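ok so I'm stuck.
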Amino acid sequence: MIAGNISPGICIAIGAAALIGGTILSYYLWQVMLRNKRKKIISEAESEAEVIKKEKILQAKERFLQLKAEHEKVINERNNRINQAEGRIKQKEQALSQKLEETQRRKNEADAIKESLTQQVELLDRKSEELAKLHRQQVEQLEAISGLSAEEARNQLMESLKEEARTGAMSYINEILDEAKLTASKEAKRIVVMAIQRVAAETAIENAVTVFHIDSDEIKGRIIGREGRNIRALEAATGVEIIVDDTPEAIVLSGFDPVRREIARLALHQLVTDGRIHPARIEEIVEKTRKQVEEEIVEIGKRTTIDLGIHGLHPELIRMVGKMKYRSSYGQNLLQHSREVANLCSIMAAELGLNPKIAKRAGLLHDIGKVPDDEPELPHAVLGMKLAEKYKEKPEVINAIGSHHDEAEMTTLIAPIVQVCDAISGARPGARREVIESYIKRLNELESLALSYPGVTKTYAIQAGRELRVIVGAEKVSDKDTENLSFEIARKIQNEMTYPGQIKITVIRETRAVNYAK
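replied:
not stuck anymore, here's the structure
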């Protein structure tokens, strides 16, 4: 009833007041809650801070104790080192004191010895003076007795001793010379025989042709070519004469240069195998083959120096050594001959106490003048010496090369060894062979040369031309003349003839009395 009598405005005012009151009450309650929560947070923070503080204090105490322990440990170690150092110093002081005492004791002993020696020296001086006085008196007496002064007597004694020493020395020298003469020949023969037995090289027959075998005679026509153009191209490119005749399945390559013949043989083999034979192809194959042969020559030279243990040889000399394979001297392959001489030189030099490496080097290069690229008008020994000098070889090697045929004077002990070994290699039986025509011609020349001397009745070349026996008439040539005749024949053969090794000349003179009983 009352509510019904209240106006709407009052109702609104009452509602607003109630709303405001509720809001204020809520704000108050919120503030109370915030204060309680803040107090709680502060209380918890203080509790945590106290806990953290206690932990930090504990950690600080532990760290302090740890640092304290480490510090004490360091101090103890330092004190120990100091104590040890003090102990060592005390030991050194004691040792020094002992040494000082020992030094003082030795000094006192030395002073005593010095004083004693001084007294002995004074005594010796007095005795020396007395001895000198006695010596002068004795010399004066001797001079008075002999009638000679001391200087004159000394000179006479020295002359007497010199003469006696000279006589004894001459006797000793004569004994040594006699012994050397008796043993030198035997020792030289032993060394030569031993060297020959330890070394032997292969030989080759001297020739100027190479036979090229083919499968059938049809290939001959292809090699000749139309109107002979192929064979002319081959001969022009290789410098070798190619002989195609009726010999079955064979073509002959003729030429004095073994390298050219080898190039021609290899090129012909490649052309026949390939089947394409025409002038352009021939020139190409020959040029290619020439390069291959040059490479093979260098390889042979390198392999030879390695086999012999010779190092530091100039590349051009190595190439010339390889080129020796395609050269021959009196039928003996030049490379095999040089290898044999090198080994002989090494053995003999070692036996004689010389340098075997230098001797082997000189032996290998001694005939290098036989294979130059150009052909100057010089003896091969002189040319080889110039080549060795050009390529900076040692003076011993240069002299041995130049003097192994006596074109230069021998100045080292290696030179006669090389000369002897060269003769041994050439004179060894079977080392050198000759074609039958040149062999017979040389024997005839030997016999004719000896027959040209007056008093010679017959001559015989024996031992394969290594010995010449000359028979003379007893009524025309005396015993004394036989020696002169043998010498003159040997000198004439040496000056006028070319031959391998050496030739022995034996002159025979005999008197025969013949009667017949009838």
